UniProtKB/TrEMBL annotation:
Family listed: Belongs to the DNA photolyase class-1 family. Belongs to the DNA photolyase family.
GO BP annotations listed: photoreactive repair; response to light stimulus
Cofactor: binding details: Binds 1 FAD per subunit.
Binding, FAD: 226, 238-242, 276, 279-286, 377-379
Pfam families: DNA_photolyase, FAD_binding_7
UniProt keyword list: Chromophore, FAD, Flavoprotein, Lyase
Protein role: Involved in repair of UV radiation-induced DNA damage. Catalyzes the light-dependent monomerization (300-600 nm) of cyclobutyl pyrimidine dimers (in cis-syn configuration), which are formed between adjacent bases on the same DNA strand upon exposure to ultraviolet radiation.
Enzyme Commission code: 4.1.99.3
NCBIfam families referenced in this protein's UniProt entry, alphabetically: PRK10674.1
Catalytic reactions of this protein: cyclobutadipyrimidine (in DNA) = 2 pyrimidine residues (in DNA)
Cofactor(s) in the UniProt record: (6R)-5,10-methylene-5,6,7,8-tetrahydrofolate; FAD
Protein name per UniProt: Deoxyribodipyrimidine photo-lyase
Length: 473
């Protein structure tokens, strides 16, 4: 008999409950990753993210081999192929127990139900762990017994829960006799089939070891200043750990515990650590929204009445936004950052998403899909939550009458244009007011586009559109 760890978005050996449980079963342990390229296509997963996952898998295979565990990688097409592939594998290796980390989006839930049915028929016990979140998505309910849909009260209860149930991630399993690492054929083929420019790869280091180093570096050097610096894209003020958290090369429990330990050790870290822990709470918040409101996976807005909004279907404006040619420096620099590195600063995700949905009044689902196709850290719950927040269609959304001014945001968060000039070289000759409004000095930036839309009047247009949607509904 064998215990099997089925790896998904949890590509690590440290702080891994499913792996620890499999090892403590006392049975020989194997590990499996099922490649689903068809699902990646359907979910529009960015090539860069696929590269990160596949490269991290290779490192995981080596780490598991050193613990005496073989990692097999099998291509099963898409989620529909998973139950059969697992059943075949379990028969072949006499698996009697299967361990995994739970996932919450709708397609993943359906996949796992189908797997439970098939494996149940074979008498295989299946055990899942809520290891990708700090607080399990159905653990907290409001006084009315409903899921939380507003962040601030959720955050309070979330912290209370964690104070009562502090995370206690298991240690990495002890070494057994190492097995040889086989560089899996399916993995090699999948990596070779990817077309990701080296210039894009150069920004990132896949794998658990790099993620753990980044966390240590951030806690040491970035946590204390996080509150003051996190909104300024020209500064390295945030952790850049989103890809590690979404692919599970790092556990969110480790992040939380290291931030708490730093707070306890150094008083001047407290302010920054509390704000950073608040971001981990946002991550859990959107995951519990996704788990409790699965219809969001069909592209539905959370606020029912906003389904009547008459979005513009302007392909040309959308293309200009995608390529960073809107004529608004901060928006354009942000979109070019996304295209050139696969990542975008959080403040700029809000600015660009609001610009698309409020200034251009283009459907948030277009932007959500574009982000997924580019982002290294593309994560359905966080991306959908962020887009619906920005478009004022979501749970705890920005009110529809709040419209970020791309000029004001630029002046506040990149006052000297250090970030803007890094990505928009056409603006090198500009300073002061003209840097944020280049149309004031068109002769100094002849290659830079004029604004595709005026900021003036946007609030009124958006307010009227939301009013109209309410009237229709
Ligand atoms: P830090 O500031 O260091 O934060 C630490 C961690 O907290 C992050 O790594 C992330 O896991 C989590 N986090 C931070 N902010 C948020 C947030 N607002 N919502 C949920 N989790 C958060 N995040 C993703 O991981 N994947 C996405 O696809 C994604 N799409 C987004 C789309 C839009 C329109 C918006 C407004 C936000 C989106 N975010 C997404 C949230 C946020 O922008 C990123 O998590 C953050 O920029 C990652 O950088 P960091 O790791 O340096 O974050």
């Amino acid at each position: 008999m064998t215990a099997l760890v089925w790896y998904r978005n949890d590509l690590r050996v440290h702080d891994h409950q499913a792996l620890a449980a499999a090892v403590s079963s006392g049975l020989p342990v194997r590990a499996l990753y099922l490649l689903c390229p068809g699902q990646w296509e359907a979910h529009q997963v960015a090539p860069l993210r696929r590269w990160y996952v596949l490269s991290s898998l290779r490192e995981l295979g080596q780490a598991l081999a050193a613990l005496g565990i073989v990692l097999d990688v099998i291509d099963c097409g898409d989620f529909a192929g998973v139950p059969q592939a697992l059943a075949d594998y379990c028969r072949r290796h006499q698996v009697s127990q299967l361990f995994c980390t739970r996932e919450y989006p709708l397609n993943e839930l359906r996949r796992d139900r189908a797997v439970a049915d098939v494996l149940g028929g074979l008498g295989i016990a299946l055990q899942g762990f809520d290891d990708s979140v700090l607080v399990p998505p159905r653990a907290l309910k409001t006084g009315q017994g409903t899921p939380y849909t507003v962040f601030t009260p959720y955050r309070r209860r979330w912290q209370h829960y964690l104070d009562e149930h502090p995370p206690a991630p298991p240690a990495r399993p002890r070494k057994r006799e190492a097995v040889a690492f086989r560089d899996d054929n399916s993995l090699r083929k999948a990596l070779a089939a990817l077309d990701v420019p080296a210039s894009l790869q150069a920004h990132w280091q896949p794998g658990e070891a790099a993620a753990r180093r980044r966390l240590q570096g951030f806690v040491r050097e970035g946590l204390a200043g996080y509150k003051a610096q996190r909104d300024f894209p020209a500064q390295a003020g945030t952790s850049l750990l989103s890809v590690a958290l979404s692919a599970g090369t790092l556990s969110v429990q480790r992040c939380y515990l290291m931030a708490r330990e730093a707070m306890a050790r150094e008083a001047d870290t407290e302010e920054g650590a509390l704000v950073w822990i608040g971001e981990l709470a946002w991550r859990d918040f959107y995951r519990q929204i996704m788990a409790n409101f699965p219809h969001l996976a069909w592209g539905a807005p959370f606020r029912e009445e906003t389904k009547w909004l008459q979005w513009q279907r302007d392909e040309q404006c959308f293309q200009a936004w995608c390529e960073g040619r809107t004529g608004y420096p901060l928006v354009d620099a942000a979109m070019r950052q996304l295209n050139q590195t696969g990542w975008m600063h959080n403040r700029l995700r809000m600015v660009t998403a609001m610009f698309l949905t409020k200034h251009l009044f283009i459907d948030w689902r277009w932007g959500e899909a574009y982000f997924m196709r580019q982002l290294l850290d593309g994560d359905f719950a966080a991306n959908n939550g962020g887009w619906q927040w920005s478009a004022s269609t979501g749970t705890d959304a920005a009110p529809y009458f709040r419209v970020f001014s791309p000029i004001r945001q630029s002046e506040r968060f990149d006052p000297d244009g250090v970030f803007i000039k890094q990505y928009v070289p056409e603006l090198h000759g500009l300073t002061g007011k003209a840097l944020h409004q280049p149309w004031l000095a068109p002769m100094l930036a002849p290659d830079y586009p004029s604004p595709i839309v005026q900021h003036e009047g946007v609030r009124e247009r958006v307010t009227a559109a939301f009013q109209q949607a309410r009237d229709i509904g």
